[in-house]
Amino acid sequence: MRIIRDYIYVEPQDRGASAAIGNFDGVHIGHQSVIELARSAGAKIGAPLGVMSFEPHPREYFAPQSPAFRLMSREARATRLTKLGVAHLYELNFNAALSALSPQDFAQQVIADGLGLKHIVVGADFCFGKGRAGNVQMLQEFGAQMGFGVTIAPLLENTGGQVSSTSIRQALGDGRPQDAAAQLGHWHRIEGPVIGGEQRGRDLGYPTANMSMDGLHLPKFGVYAVLVDVQDGPHAGSYHGAASLGVRPMFGINTANLETFIFDFSGDLYGATLSVGLVDFLRPELKFDTLEELIAQMEADCLQARSLLSAT
User: Fold this and answer.
1) Are the beta carbons of 93 and 70 closer than 8 angstroms?
2) Does the structural domain 187-309 have CATH classification 2.60.40.1190?
3) Mean model confidence pLDDT for the chain
4) Helix, strand or coil for residue 24?
5) Is 198 a catalytic residue?
6) Residue-range domain boundaries for the chain
7) 240-287: pLDDT as tens digits
8) So what's the architecture of 2-158 in CATH?
9) Per the residue annotation, which of 259, 285, 293, 299 is the catalytic one?
């Protein structure tokens, strides 16, 4: 997949796609349905599949001090889109110039002239341009004038109601990763490099791979049964494990992170990129009176996680 971040200087081979447009946080089943419509439209006109998104997320741009809300990093989103067969990711730099474009200028300068898109697909609630002044009806009118096709995708619902990143965040915050997965179409995954820790897990007999949660929505603190993909390095592969998400209350005041113990694994993972899928919530984060109590609980957590994951 090719990633394009500038709509002004675009290589000829990156123009002319059939693209889904949106933020695609989580790449949930609603997003996937929009992408499939773009794929189908492109197949009819001989156009490659593209996705147009924005970085930083407009919500981060306009409210940089707001609590972290993203379900996935830009890297994790790119990984997921690659798996869906997207050929061109237009990850446009969302800045003062782009946010100041009127709806008509956005359609002309970005979609038509800049990227030369042949067809676009957006959700029924899509808004664009300065002040979110543009709507899907205006986009259809601009498409007819400027020479690109437009498909409006209906909002997707499942048995739990409308599928949205907001409802997925709620499910994760409640400790319901399986309900989140039903809307995502995949396990909610935390992706990033393994960072150095204080090696307490190693001292306790449970060495963990530590990952930062900076900038990401925080699921409910506690212990999870997890699926682990080591994406690079000599230990690349898929594993089962148990992970603790939280602030480690036995050891003072700490920044929230994810600590994953990989079953039946031996090796150095520092610097490797991991993708950790939350499968089941085992228990909330607890503060134990003694290390012996903590170790006993960790053993019980791992036994429970092994049992649950053996059925996946």
Assistant:
1) no
2) no
3) 92
4) coil
5) no
6) 2-158, 187-309
7) 999 999 987 656 567 899 999 999 998 889 889 999 999 999 999 988
8) 3-Layer(aba) Sandwich (3.40)
9) 259
